[in-house]
Specification:
4 helices
Length: about 110
């Protein structure tokens, strides 16, 4: 039987792995979109991020399906947290015209 402390640990591991994965994705898009070998940079980043997440899930959460589910929930929650943070950061650095938000037209 899995106790609640183990599930909280699994949720925290999922949050950390998700934050690393999605923050790494955002960093990759920001830094390597102007690189001369974009495809190679994106492929390397994807393999590194996926490898880290898979190893983390396997070694830290792999002994029970309940821990895997809690870790997956943490991973998904981390996605929404990173999306919200990235949205705030990009809005501060690139203000949007209110007319563009309503109509999609930018003069």
């Amino acid at each position: 039987m899995i106790d609640s402390l183990e599930l909280l640990f699994a949720l925290a591991v999922g949050l950390v792995l998700g934050a690393i994965f999605f923050a790494g994705l955002w960093w990759t898009v920001q830094k390597f979109s102007a690189s001369p070998s974009v495809a190679l940079c994106f492929l390397g980043s994807m393999l590194l991020r996926m490898g880290l997440v898979l190893v983390g899930f396997y070694f830290l959460l792999g002994d029970s399906w309940q821990k895997m589910c809690a870790g997956l929930c943490g991973f998904i929650v981390a996605r929404f947290i990173v999306m919200r943070i990235v949205d705030r950061v990009t809005r501060k650095s690139h203000p949007v015209n209110p007319l563009q938000l309503r109509t999609g037209y930018e003069p």
